Amino acid sequence: MRAGTVIACCVAGLLFSTRPAAAAPVGEDGLELGGAVRFSYGWLDYADSPGADLELLRGEARGRSGRASFSLQYRWYDGFDAVHHAWAGWDAGADSQLRAGVQQVPFGLLPYASHSFWFGSGYYLGLEDDYDLGVVWEHGAGAHRWHVGWFSGDEYGDGGRFDRYSFDVATTEALPYRERGRVALRYEFSEESERHGFAAGVSVSSGHIESRMDGRRHGHDAAAVHAQYRRGPATVQLQWARYRYGHPEPRIAMSAFMFPFEVAAEADVPTFNLAWEVQRPGWFDAITCYNDLSVTLPRGHHPGLRESWQNVTGCSIAKGKMVTYVDWIAGKNMWFAGGPGIGIDEPGGDGWRSRLNINMGFFF
Fold first, then answer.
1. Quick one: which H or E segment has residue 4?
2. Who is most buried in 73, 205, 259, 331, counting CB within 10 A?
3. DSSP annotation of 107
4. How deeply is 223 buried, as exposed, middle or buried, from its count of CB atoms within 10 A (0-12, 13-18, 19+)?
5. Is residue 128 within 8 Å of residue 159, measured between CB atoms?
6. pTM to 2 decimals?
7. pLDDT tens across 310-320, in order?
């Protein structure tokens, strides 16, 4: 059964995280506990609709004592549970911090190269909101900010474990690989004022994947240029990412939320997002409407590969501790929108397919 169909029938509407960024440690000494509960409703134009369901329960804690800090979050979904992040940090001086543990890989636009509940194509390719086990040094100096990170592998060190939050290389029978050591470097220049904001930067990462059959290692590289511009209520996000897995096959398997699927082993991933925020519109605290467009363009002339498209149009609505997302997701040859994978050419990827997702969350 195709992965897109499995998702639609079994767990559609349960998949993806809350959009608020992982909680940072409190600014003063102390401990904070929190969590969230989210409900979702889904309608699909290509398969049976999942209807309404409980999507997520999560618990989290964060704290600080002097220069030391920590943050952790654990999640419960329908049928599995997984760590989101769990790290300890040390303030190394003015606007510098060293963190160790399961944490977000510093790559591309941060915290996300998207606005919608469903993220962009890069999320499913391990290029956006990816959490792995490693050490990261972050340093800011005025308008400049650097990230330097080393990661031992994915958050569990096991490509055969599919019940995870962020997308990593999967160990499957056809493609038995897993992620190994990786270095990530990121630089960003930013300027911010009350009416305007601009940020531009570059990210690179280089590491290996390991064959579970013979132990051989192959290169795993990625790079991105990214920019974000804000003028009043309008925001534009631009990113061009490229990734490459250097193993012999033209595909690699990825997994999260209990399901593996295949993607092109080498591709460009352009992203173009627009958003408009309305502050305090009547009863609500804020409404942000957006259109997030991303494409996966396989590189090389390998049979069985072709481009995948994803476009998400929607709004996020905030009121107190409640955040609601209303998204219309359209995909062509895109994994969770009825497609067989990402960047691959197999039956089932023809034509545009769509789904409506409404997600309401309460944070405490």
1. helix 3-6
2. 331
3. -
4. middle
5. no
6. 0.91
7. 999 999 999 99
Domains belonging to the chain, first-starting first, are: 3-363 (2.40.160.10)
Tokens of 2: 């195709």
Q: What are phi and psi of 5, to 5 degrees?
A: -70, -40
pLDDT at 84 over 90: yes
pLDDT in tens, 248-267: 999 999 999 999 999 999 99
CA atoms within 13 A on the CB side of 200: 2
The CA-to-CA distance between both ends of the chain, in Å, stands at: 39
Kindly state the tokens that stand for 103.
């944490």
CA of residue 80 relative to chain centroid, distance: 19
Q: Could you read off the pLDDT of 148-177 as tens digits, one per residue? A: 999 999 999 999 999 999 999 999 999 999
Confidence of residue 27 (pLDDT cuts 50, 70, 90): low
Supply 141's token pair. Answer: 């100096």
What single-letter amino acid sits at 80? F
